[in-house]
């Protein structure tokens, strides 16, 4: 077996309920030459106490704690600077990986000397006892050279969400060290970093296995947003996704994929817009200010010149009506639709909560 060291970087913030499962999934890897860096981002619960107990028992674990919360992106960058391994893997503190994950990746690295190995992600909706599988990369292990990226990778970036996370892959450390610049993004930052990485790598191995388990946490989606945060997220979406139009030409993709990109951006903007109605005490003037900012974006003109209402209706996205109103700039109807969606979601959440309380 190879002696290559792999550093697993775990940014951690207030996950005392979940961190044990995450840590155990890494300690129990069949491949043993690993370094586990846990970066505690000023947790206020017992997360730090939990991981320090594991640090005492396993010399491969190092825990670093920050006094001020600076976000997962900062924690990851500190981890890259500290890492001793030749390869790096990111695991979020409430997620977990299969026991053979690192061994399978190292086997591919030994066979092909590749820059990145990517594998499948499963979204675990534990409160609903459901799993959602991200689109499968391939049916068998596939070695992809730079000249074949358009067929195997670039199309995937445009048409799926497989590259919206830095998890689900193992990466040569030197590539990450070359991409440590600050981007100040709070939305789509992983996609942004993946785009930068893939412009520099020479080869990737794609695995058919689903090895990464992403815990879907409903609370984290609905409770932290503010008007300022949503405005920043909208700005980030425009910065990152607008690059896709340039990449379509650069990657020699058919122009028809501009429709795919336009629908995707419209969906992302719509989803953030709908989150406005989850904010307590937000007033109509503040919402109208955001309406105006969205309307004035060049990207919206590009989208309106690329897709039609018919294209939106044919898409498989949820909240299609809201997307239609946004495309038309009909913000009054969009407000009504957003309120209705919000009320329905709250009803469903209450029903689910009652159901699971009853089951217990």
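Sequence proposed for the structure above (360 residues):
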């Amino acid at each position: 077996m190879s002696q290559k060291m792999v550093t697993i970087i775990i940014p951690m913030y207030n996950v005392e309920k979940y961190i044990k499962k995450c840590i155990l999934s890494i300690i129990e890897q069949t491949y043993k030459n690993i370094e586990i860096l846990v970066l505690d981002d000023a947790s206020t619960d017992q997360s730090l106490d939990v991981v320090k107990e594991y640090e005492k028992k396993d010399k491969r674990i190092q825990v670093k704690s920050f006094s001020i919360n600076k976000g997962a992106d900062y924690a990851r960058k500190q981890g890259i600077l500290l890492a001793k391994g030749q390869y790096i893997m990111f695991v979020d503190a409430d997620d977990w990986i299969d026991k053979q994950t690192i061994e399978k990746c190292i086997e591919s690295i030994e066979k092909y000397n590749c820059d990145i190995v990517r594998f499948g992600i499963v979204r675990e909706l534990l409160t609903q006892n459901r799993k959602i599988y991200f689109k499968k990369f391939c049916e068998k292990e596939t070695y992809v050279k730079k000249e074949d990226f358009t067929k195997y990778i670039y199309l995937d970036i445009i048409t799926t969400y497989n590259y919206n996370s830095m998890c689900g892959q193992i990466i040569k450390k030197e590539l990450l060290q070359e991409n440590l610049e600050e981007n100040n993004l709070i939305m789509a930052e992983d996609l942004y970093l993946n785009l930068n990485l893939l412009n520099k790598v020479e080869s990737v191995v794609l695995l058919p296995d689903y090895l990464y388990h992403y815990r879907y946490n409903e609370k984290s989606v609905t409770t932290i947003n503010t008007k300022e945060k949503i405005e920043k997220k909208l700005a980030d979406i425009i910065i990152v996704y607008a690059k896709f139009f340039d990449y379509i030409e650069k990657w020699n993709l058919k122009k028809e994929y501009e429709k795919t990109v336009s629908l995707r951006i419209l969906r992302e903007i719509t989803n953030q817009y709908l989150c406005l109605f989850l904010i307590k005490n937000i007033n109509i003037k503040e919402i109208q200010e955001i309406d105006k900012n969205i309307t004035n974006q060049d990207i919206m003109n590009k989208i309106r010149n690329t897709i039609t209402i018919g294209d939106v209706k044919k898409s498989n996205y949820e909240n299609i009506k809201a997307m239609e109103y946004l495309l038309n700039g009909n913000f009054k109807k969009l407000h009504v639709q957003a309120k209705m969606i919000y009320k329905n979601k709250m009803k469903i959440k209450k029903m689910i909560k009652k159901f699971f309380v009853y089951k217990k």
